[in-house]
Amino acid sequence: MTTVHVRAPESHGDVFDSIGRRAYLDSLREYGDLVVWTGSSSPQHVSGLGLQSSDTATGSYRRWFTTAFVAAARGRARIAVDPYQRSSLHTWSLVSLVLLARARRSRALISGFGESTAVADATFGAFGDRLVDSAVSESQWSFRLGTSVSEWIASRPYAALALRGDRPPPSPAWIEWFEATTSTLGLTPAVVVHASEDYLSAQSLSHSLPGTYQAFFVSDHADHERALREVYARSALLVSDRPSALILGATEGAVPIGWVESSIGEIGATFDALAMPWVGRWEGDAAERLPAIDDATLAESAARLAAVVHRERVRLGRSDRAGVAT
User: Fold this and answer.
1) How far are the Cα atoms of 61, 137, 244, 305 from residue 311, in angstroms, in the given order?
2) Which of 1, 8, 194, 264 is the most buried (most CB within 10 A)?
């Protein structure tokens, strides 16, 4: 039996932390049963990883490394070189695993999301019957998840809003722009929460806007993700300064809009690479410069979104199925 040894520890604690890792783990199952190092991750994070009965998970790096070493020595292991490496000690232990795998005709799977140069030099192009796409970022793996494009619902009464709580709140002029946008499109604002630090600011926003307050935040990541997806599946658009939130909404058909004063450039960098330049076109600009969004503009963006999501899923080897954690 071939096993795939991979690390997926918690890093920053919000729901997208586990979503990105779950998408990556899902992509590896075609290679064998997973042996996952979760480190000191919280139970909430682990719940969002979507681990299956065929997977083995451990919080002990020593145990994970020993198991991987023995399997690699027997020629029955694949070592996943993934984006979640932080410790230099772990980096060099990974190098030793990959070199052993090479000697024993095991394989390495290279994802290329920022492993150290030493690991890349030791492994890139040297292994495997397939190279995991080295151009895929952590956030882009999340396109594997979510409702199939063909199953996106047409009735979308909400305009979702997800803003970071650790940045300055939007100005009155920006609130006016958002209200005017929702009014023009006939949408109801829905304020949502992606991380615990967003909660108080979301409450404040909900009091500033008419409509439904949907400030979901539950500690269990799988439940939290389901709650967010339910809102986004009924949202015509999502405005946020969180690239991760915009991608999550996009996988449910909510047109992503990053036109927020508090954004600092990361949205454009993320979505320009996906051929979605409108998402970050006016990020960080003053509210007075933001253009209106009418029905025609929204419909055009929705069509382009569907094409991009489909393209990314094909590129990432996604089968036509829903991707909500169970």
Assistant:
1) 36, 15, 18, 10
2) 8
- CA 110, 112, 117, 120: dihedral to nearest 10 degrees? 20
Q: Identity (one letter) of the amino acid at 130? A: R
What is the β-pairing status of strands 255-257 and 188-191?
unpaired
User: Tell me: the pLDDT tens digits for 305-324?
Assistant: 999 999 999 988 876 554 44
- Residue of 141, 122, 195 lying closest to 164 (CA atoms): 195
- Which pTM does this prediction carry? 0.84
Contact in structure between 239 and 161 (CB atoms under 8 Å): yes
Dump pLDDT digits (tens) for 68-126.
Answer: 989 888 877 788 865 445 555 566 777 777 777 767 665 655 554 333 333 343 343 33
**Amino acid at residue number 216:** F
Please identify which residue in the block is written with the tokens 């992606």: 194
37: left (phi over 0), alpha (psi -120 to 50) or beta: beta
